[in-house]
Amino acid sequence: MNMKTRVTVTLDPQVIHRAKSVARARNTNLSALIESLLSQTIEVGAAKPMRFSQKWAGKFSLRESDGSDPLLDAMKARFDLE
Predict the structure, then answer these.
(1) pTM summary value
(2) Exposed, middle or buried by CB within 10 Å (0-12, 13-18, 19+), for 35?
């Protein structure tokens, strides 16, 4: 039998309100949502930490260069982003 332990956590009221909305949207309750998020965090934390570049890969795009920004052009050339 899996016993649950009650824990007291202090959170910002706006965070609680938004978290309850997320929990409702997922058809669960706040306790189950928090438990799920903590479990995921623990699993990820136990694994090798993700490098910054791995975590953010594909999340950003560079603006088009019109040739007036030499730093942007140099970075695109250096990292083969053209």
Answers:
(1) 0.52
(2) middle
